[in-house]
Write a structure and sequence with these properties.
Length: 195
C-alpha cells in the first residue's frame, strides 16, 4: 500500500506522533495536505511591497512550524493550530512590510535632535524585543528549510557567497571553475525560491 494512502486514513494527531518518531516524510504529507488552507488564507490578505507568492511562503513557514510545534494535549485540533500559526506568520510578514514602508517616517529625527544625540552618543533605532525574537525564529526556520533542500556543495557555496565572496573567489577556494560556481548559485536560487 502506498504511504500516502496510508496517511490519508490516519488522523493528524497520529501522523504528528509518527513524524516526531522519525517518519520525516509525514511532514511533507502534512504540508501538502494543508497547502490549500495556506493558499486560501493568502488570498484573503495583502502584503504591501510584496506579492502573493511572498505571503504564500510566509504561510508555508507557519504551517511548517505548526507541524513541528503542535501539542496534542491542548484542546485545539491540528487544523485549528495550523491555521492560527499560518495566520500569525502572514500577519507578522504584513506588519514587517508595513514597518519597512514607514521606516523613513518612523525613524526620522530632527536635525537639532540628531546633533544633541550625537553629542550624547545616543544615535540609532532599536527594534522591539518581540520583533527581534520573531525575526530570529523566522530566520532559523528558513535556514533549516534551506539546509534541507541544498546539497553539501550548495551549502558550502552559499556560505561563502553570504560571507561576501564573489564567484571567482569561491571558485579559487573550492578549486572549481567560476562557471561551475555560477551554475551552483543558480540552482540554489531556484531551490530557495520554491520554499
Amino acid at each position: 500500500m502506498d504511504d500516502m494512502n496510508t496517511y490519508d486514513s490516519m488522523d493528524d494527531t497520529e501522523l504528528i506522533r509518527r513524524f516526531r518518531a522519525g517518519e520525516v516524510q509525514i511532514g511533507d504529507y502534512l504540508v501538502e495536505k494543508y497547502k490549500p488552507l495556506v493558499k486560501s488564507k493568502a488570498r484573503e490578505l495583502f502584503l504591501a511591497g510584496g506579492d502573493h507568492e511572498d505571503l504564500l511562503q510566509e504561510g508555508m513557514i507557519g504551517l511548517f512550524r505548526a507541524v513541528r510545534e503542535y501539542d496534542e494535549d491542548r484542546e485545539a485540533s491540528f487544523r485549528t493550530f495550523a491555521l492560527l500559526l499560518v495566520t500569525r506568520q502572514m500577519y507578522s510578514a504584513i506588519q514587517g512590510a508595513q514597518r519597512q514602508k514607514h521606516k523613513a517616517l518612523n525613524s526620522s529625527v530632527s536635525i537639532s535632535e540628531l546633533q544633541d544625540n550625537q553629542e550624547e552618543g545616543k544615535l540609532g533605532v532599536v527594534d522591539s524585543p518581540e520583533t527581534i525574537v520573531l525575526d530570529r525564529e523566522n530566520a532559523e526556520v528558513l535556514r533549516q528549510r534551506i539546509d534541507g533542500v541544498l546539497s553539501p556543495l550548495e551549502r558550502k557555496v552559499l556560505n561563502y557567497y553570504l560571507e561576501g565572496m564573489d564567484y571567482r573567489m569561491i571558485a579559487e577556494r573550492m578549486e572549481r571553475s567560476p562557471k561551475s560556481i555560477d551554475n551552483t548559485l543558480q540552482r540554489i536560487r531556484r531551490k530557495v525560491s520554491h520554499l
